[in-house]
Amino acid sequence: MTSLRRRPARVALVVAALVTLLTSAGCQGGTAGGPSTPDPDPAQESSMGFTNPIFDQNFPDPMIITAEDGSYLAIATNGNGSNAQTLVSEDLVTWSQGPDALPDLPAWSSPGKVWAPEAIKHSDGRYLLYYTTRAPDPEIQCVGVAVAERAGGPYVDERPDPLVCEEEQGGSIDAHPFTTSDGTRYLYWKNDGNAVGVDTWISVQELDESGTELVGEPRQLFKQDLPWEGTLVEGPFLWEHEGRFHMFYSANSYASPDYAVGHAVADDPLGPFTKTPEPIMVGNDVAAGPGHCALFEKDGRVWMVYHAWYPGEVGPDYPGRTMWLSEVTFDGDSVSVVPPTLDYPDRP
Predict the structure, then answer these.
(1) Strand order, beta sheet including 322-331
(2) What is the 8-class DSSP label of residue 26?
(3) Which residues contact residue 198 at a Cβ distance below 8 angstroms, ignoring those fewer than 6 apart?
(4) Which portions of the sequence form the region Disordered (predicted)?
(5) Structural domains of the chain, with CATH
(6) Is residue 222 within 8 Å of residue 275, measured between CB atoms?
(7) What is the value of pTM for the model shown?
(8) Strand pairing category for 244-251 and 233-241
(9) pLDDT of residue 137
(10) What is the pLDDT of residue 139?
């Protein structure tokens, strides 16, 4: 028998819409010229909660950046006809479709496998997009970098070849740019070892001032070595807090409910990193396989954006990996992340 289970987040949205409709109908019963409903108090509105997922369609490997006009831009893996799909928002909880941030790929690549793009604003006002795409050898993935004048692009990659491409290690994916408080730039990534049956390593290498060239030699930081991590680690994201460097990463198969978020800490962006033994975010009864996260700060609070599947629907592109928010707090070398929650009590 076919299950008729409804998705909890969608039910919540439908209920909210019905309540709004009934309230509006009740208000229309007054006489013409009667008292009008006052505009909502912005302070009261900002203290209201929100519903996860904040975007209820396939939007894998998300990250959020503040655009040049103060609005917010979310960027994710290819989908919806885009190489690098985007969403735009004024409040971080209501999102609408944006343009393709990377409409044209460089001559050395081809469409169809653009993964995990991450944008960062350069000190000179430009925006840089680090992304994974099909390499000159179509059997592996490599990392490119593209430049734009606006957060939403269009980004253009003018390099004649990839920025990072570890051909003997299965390729290179999941690039993450990071700038320390003293202005030093680094690029983190993962070799795609699980694609060819070798270890996966999170690696780092310094970037030059332009952010488009690597300096020195890469350094391997850590690989999969904990039981919960399965055969891989991936999706690195570094956050500096009170002089310590917190590495958030994902592990296990992305197409599995066992996918989860891990954490490691160091006193230097080049390591060595000490892992937290167990994952800091796992699936529950409302979200399966949460992971590939990015962090951002809003009004002194740190938030994690990540993707997750609906339980029982892990794997297909529809509805796919939807976009969620959870708050992150720090206590020395430890971090806490609010588990995936449908009805979140307050907004960012």
Answers:
(1) 288-298, 301-309, 322-331, 334-337
(2) H
(3) 169, 170, 191
(4) 27-52
(5) 62-184+196-223 (2.115.10.20), 224-347 (2.115.10.20)
(6) yes
(7) 0.88
(8) antiparallel
(9) 83
(10) 85
